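Posting here for the record, re: pyridoxal-5'-phosphate.
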Amino acid sequence: MELKELYKEVILDHYQNPRNYGEIPYAYSSEGINPLCKSEGENPICGDAIYIQFLVKDNRLEDIRFTGTGCTISQASASIMTELVKGKSLEDVKTLIIRFKRIMEGEEDFTEDLGDLLAFEGVRKLPARIKCALLAWEVLLEGIKKYLERQVERVNV
Amino acid sequence: MELKELYKEVILDHYQNPRNYGEIPYAYSSEGINPLCKSEGENPICGDAIYIQFLVKDNRLEDIRFTGTGCTISQASASIMTELVKGKSLEDVKTLIIRFKRIMEGEEDFTEDLGDLLAFEGVRKLPARIKCALLAWEVLLEGIKKYLERQVERVNV
Amino acid sequence: MYDVYKIRDDFPILKEKVNGKNLVYLDNAATTQKPLSVIDAIADYYKHYNANVHRGVHSLGVIATQEYERTRKKVANFIKAEDSSCIVFTKGTTESINLVAYGWGRKFLKEGDEIILTVMEHHSNIVPWQILAREKGLKLKFIPLKDDGTLDIESFYSLITGKTKLVGVTYVSNVLGTVNPIDNIVDAAHSVGARVLIDGAQGIPTIPTNVKSLNVDFLAFSAHKMLGPTGVGVLYGKREILEDMEPLLGGGEMIKKVSITDSVWADVPYRFEGGTPNIAGVIGFGKAIDYLNNLGMEEIFKYEKLLTTYALEKLSGIDGLTIYGPRDISLRSGIISFNYRDIHPHDVATILDQSGIAIRAGHHCAQPLHSVLGIPASCRVSLYIYNTKEEIDYLVESLERIEEVFRSGA
Amino acid sequence: MYDVYKIRDDFPILKEKVNGKNLVYLDNAATTQKPLSVIDAIADYYKHYNANVHRGVHSLGVIATQEYERTRKKVANFIKAEDSSCIVFTKGTTESINLVAYGWGRKFLKEGDEIILTVMEHHSNIVPWQILAREKGLKLKFIPLKDDGTLDIESFYSLITGKTKLVGVTYVSNVLGTVNPIDNIVDAAHSVGARVLIDGAQGIPTIPTNVKSLNVDFLAFSAHKMLGPTGVGVLYGKREILEDMEPLLGGGEMIKKVSITDSVWADVPYRFEGGTPNIAGVIGFGKAIDYLNNLGMEEIFKYEKLLTTYALEKLSGIDGLTIYGPRDISLRSGIISFNYRDIHPHDVATILDQSGIAIRAGHHCAQPLHSVLGIPASCRVSLYIYNTKEEIDYLVESLERIEEVFRSGA
Ligand SMILES: Cc1ncc(COP(=O)(O)O)c(C=O)c1O
Ligand SMILES: Cc1ncc(COP(=O)(O)O)c(C=O)c1O
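Prediction output follows.
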């Protein structure tokens, strides 16, 4: 494989200029109804780390930000993800996450509608790096799951 | 190797008619000066077991008897050993034991003066059975060592 | 169709001569022979993609990891486990059982708790529990045998109580060949909340097995007894039980995070695989499973029954030969132990070896069972997929000639 | 004369292509490649005399046992141990260290006792002690580093007290390449009656070693890091210490006697080798030692110094590349870790892999050391007997091209 295919300009751009990078301002998230959600994860083998904060309103991801350290792939993937999921309904976000996981694991194909995600076609050929590409997505999925569990608990109280 | 070489008549004879088999009568051994010495050992892999009793007088093996269960080789070897060592000085016995061990381990050769022990030439070619052939000898060596240690202790008291 | 002669062609060692005679290998319960595909897989790994697993970004490391993990999936499928994360690689049945004793037993068992084993267990399924029992003040109980060499299951029902926390039973006795009634044991154990550990070392190689329907909690077995390499074993455990277990070995690969003050364990099953594993062995094991699957475990099972029936019949015809273990073929596998007249098993084995026949003599790491049988040792013939009726005929002939040796002085 | 090109011919994998390029294998600290003689020895065992060891009367079992035990003698000679009964086979360094922790530490250490380790230890020499410390109430102390990446031996002298019962130190750091001053450590430890455990995983493969003159109490290492198979390790221990130790694994082969109520352990070293061992692996390991002996450990040591000097010089010339560990060649081995600009080690490794170069990226199972260095991960190049100056030149060229990728978007 050509390095070009792997380290596409899109990926390097997101790595060097990450979108939605940082934390959600406290003031913005302090209303009681949609509290700030946090989720974090690491890839212990690489030392990649991703921290995500998001706000849910009317079952939509109203805002999402991330910080992290790690390799190009993991950080670029997080940046692209935040752009793609912001504003979407939780259902749609979950569907996208699961779809991207399936694609990276070779069970589905890339399609044109995936936008910047298409840049990961090269990464898919490198099994050792698939985990890097998926890290942010796993962290967000975990976060959404925890959010939904809390909602259920709240209803049950 | 021919089976003949392994299960020589001498070996089968000693196996079927073990010499010095049994225990040393209590009366005979009850004088305080040369108490009855005992030693026992097993080959855990085969289930061979050898129990030896002996009497030392003036640093000679005045009497020796054995009992045991196990394969032809281990029992015949014990029988032949008792015949060879009875009456010998402890030094000579130790020398013979060490020599026989070296022979069986291939570090020395058999010589004509070894009498019935020559029957073990075939066994030497079967590493799995060398332990069987040596069991009684190890047990006796152990017994003699313990006897000598006790003598030293007695002197030191 | 099961073509044993074609199968034999896949096993290079079966062309060996031993003491000038064709090798007749009847010591399969100790370890089985390996087909060329397994031997080649190991060499291929070393020649083409040797690298450490789970650590490398580089291509060799990725391929090695994929192949290593592929075996985990194959093992899971082979025993119909719910998920490949329930499959822990160890160095053998012995380590697998010790892992249960240390990782689960030491954590969850308390003074006064009881463990039920059987008197036919291999030392591997006795000694770890004795060690734990001494440390923790546990009580070990042993299920006795009936006269036919099967478990006295009625006694088991009376031994089991609310204090019973674990029942550890061998799938198949490595001496008697007895196949134990796992379902009954699991039902009774679970009804009092006890866990069940199956020592599958002799069962998994020949009995088609579904751990989910058997509903066992732990299952241990060894690759080398089912065509695979030495130094590889498996512990299957139910996921939720494994999740609560402590590792046996602390070190690399089994942690998420280590600081000077503390560590966080990795997820199941990696938590239990500290240190560089036997990568070549695990990859070779994958090919062994492929080989068994290609033949079909049902076919293997049938062929072994056929051969065992034949062997039992022939051996029973020898004057002065005492067979231990059940005669009913539906209750046993292809492991047949016996004594021949008053000739010590070691002598029998040595004499047969002169004819190229490899059998085992001794206590087969089952001293308590031998005590129960009242014998210090026995001869053991154990059959596997490549053995033939002709080999059994030759065994019987050779056994019959032993008497001559002892009568004539050879 | 040391002819590296002739040596390379003995390693089939060095003819492999990776991503269309010749393989340049620089991940030897993870695992080394294997010469054909080792690969063939394993296949030979399986093709000609595969059988279980220490149990069989039959010829195959005898040959297998002899070959297995022959490796034990070779290992004893290789490290100049007093006796081959001081050599215990395990599945790797990790198991060896855990065996010391469980078999010796758990038996002899008591609340308040102290263990001294170093911050540069591999997780294998940290985690087992953390587990034991938690269980027993022991205190762990860590020797810090000096700025040049060597141990701060003065600190060590102030950490060691009458309460110190064990000092566990890596022979060679698997990240920094630092070679530690074992003699000083042994002297100081023995003067307070503490035992010394050396993690020799990275040292034994390249440094000619005499355990008797080093006077260490325990030494652990892995076959797979010195041309041998995966799944084989060694614990050397002084005979009288081993005699007092408990086994880690209970089971077959490690007992003298088992009854329903009790067991008697077998003699050293068999007591520690419960279960069927990795027979093929141990036999292959024997050939690996032969190979190293044929080259001569002194020669190997010299060649590695030469190559390391060259590599350090070349790598130091790269702009923006930070090397960790000592620069003084007399204080280090052929393991060189570095970071390149702000490019994540994983990206570096992936890009090099596209050129056929295998290096390691990550924390190398030494997270505490990485914390001390203040970096999440590093790149690691590790050299062994078959690496060449040309390979280092190619590495340097390829590293220099990485910047382009990042500047231009490839
Ligand atoms: C210094 C050191 N100690 C211990 C180990 C662990 O060795 P293994 O994985 O063979 O058990 C390694 C290698 O990974 C090492 O480099
Ligand atoms: C029933 C049984 N359990 C356990 C074992 C131990 O297996 P391994 O030696 O592979 O650990 C064996 C084989 O020796 C066995 O037959």
